[in-house]
Amino acid sequence: MRAAIINTVIGTGSIGRIACGTADEILSHGGEVLLCRGRGDEVSGYDNYRIGSDADMYMHGVLSRITDRHGAYSTGATKRLIARLEEYKPDLIQLHNAHGYYVNYKLLFEWLKKSEIPVVWTLHDCWSFTGHCVHYEYRGCEKWKDGSCGSCPEKKVYPASLICDASKKNYSDKKSAFTGIRGMHLVTPSHWLESQVKESMLSEYPVRVINTGIDLGVFRPFGSDIREKYGIGDRVLLLGVANPWRDRKGMFDMAKLALRLDPEKYAIAMIGLKKSQMNLLPPAILKIGHTDSVEELVRWYSAADIYVNLTYEDTFPTTNLEALACGTPVITYRSGGSPETVDDATGVVTEKQDLKAVMAAIELLGKKQTGITGDCLARAGAYDRKDRFREYYELYQEI
Hints:
- The longest helix has 16 residues, at about 15-30.
- It is built from 15 helices and 13 strands.
- Helices cover about 40% and strands about 15% of the residues.
- It has helices at about 15-30, 55-65, 75-90, 105-115, 145, 165-180, 190-195, 225-230, 250-260, 275-280, 295-305, 320-325, 355-365, 370-380, 385-399, and strands at about 1-5, 30-35, 45-50, 90-95, 120, 185-190, 205-210, 235-240, 265-275, 285-290, 305-310, 330-335, 345-350.
């Protein structure tokens, strides 16, 4: 098998790690892989190709913020990418994010139609079938279903436009570019996103659900001095992690929760906050900035009694899985694919904004017990990333 894998970044971030993991799986079976990235450093040990340059991405981003025509630029970079792919002659193309200011999707998909090379396109969000946004659940917008995009309520959210609203034109252009491709197979990380795709302009394609996996060798119960270091003592520790924190990620719901819970009995820690956000939150909250240390996150997950994820929109949050892998149960809103990560033995799902239900769930779960820790570890075992990479390879073989 000779495959080309395309994404904004390779080797970093959850999607970039999927790209490398699937590449390793192909290579382990004697195949060949070309890793094509829009930005970031090349990954040693692989055949790498950089799409465009930093200047090209910067210009793409600037023009997008003016015109709302994200994905309509990087023309030269995309033509050179196509030339490299024609030279490489892949048997299959694995595409991840087609957004990210690095590729002209019209040119790329026009070539994909002509080349008739089988394509696996993994959708990690909703951008591919909307006129602008990557998520719409927070706004409750359903214009994407019938193509009535226009006056987009998410215009100033990534991929942000500060001036124009081209969402109607964008929807039309995406539908023209993304449909009618022979040999196209879609992958989604959650059943929720699969259901959305089946109601969208992309409903003509077969969809396979392959969950995002985690590294169970890294995320595991780990001894921690977190409680002593932050003076938490025997209080029930509630943990929230986001990057970045926003209202739609539950930042202010966590604040409301802190004001309602007894600080003598409960401690709340939020990781990933900006300094400007820390000043907006109640003093009772332990405010932790962004960390790139996976070991630090593992220590927090392990020390916590409950992981609280009050997100209003998410495709398939791996932070839930990371917490479970450290033996910690999860409370989450019924939003996007988040409820799919837990079952009755490992957490509680409540309706959005229902803080009474969240508080009842916190009372129910209480201090972390040995029994629930075992259930969480068993649940996390179903999301071993090595098994997910194997699923991708099996799909490639079928195609």
